[in-house]
Design brief:
The chain is an alpha+beta fold. It contains two helices and eight strands; from the N terminus they run βββββαβαββ. The longest helix has 19 residues, at about 50-65.
Length: about 130
């Protein structure tokens, strides 16, 4: 199997020993993205709406660097701090993921996320 590291300055730099994404066998596997502004590497201001938009923009940039896009996502995993934010996240998510075949998706409430963000998301996409 050939593996290729994907890296872009248009998304936050990895804050640990991992790649932003890995391309293998016609798929792109992203690491979890949080709501960091790639220009400052700081958490965006605001609440769940602002963080959700930033997370999806970051994922989009990583996918583009790999030669894919949000339209090519086949699986999304969403980690949230508070299930009460589900409706807001779902509304925003549905404006980015609009293809005829929507990705399979899991949403899980967790106790804590890196940098105490409210949401983290990872995706698998095809090329």
């Amino acid at each position: 199997m050939n593996k290729e590291k994907i890296s872009t300055t248009k998304a936050p730099v990895a804050i640990g020993p991992y790649s932003q994404a890995v391309k293998a066998n016609g798929c792109v596997f992203t690491s979890g993205q949080i709501a960091l502004d790639p220009k400052t590497n700081r958490l965006v201001e605001g609440g769940i709406s602002e963080q959700t938009h930033q997370v999806i923009r970051n994922l989009s940039e990583v996918l583009q660097a790999a030669g894919s896009s949000l339209d090519q996502v086949v699986k999304a995993t969403v980690f949230i701090k508070d299930m009460d934010d589900f409706a807001t996240i779902n509304g925003i998510y549905s404006t980015y993921f609009t293809s005829a075949v929507l990705p399979a998706r899991s949403v899980v409430q967790v106790v804590r996320l890196p940098k105490d963000v409210l949401i983290e998301m990872e995706v698998v996409a095809v090329l």
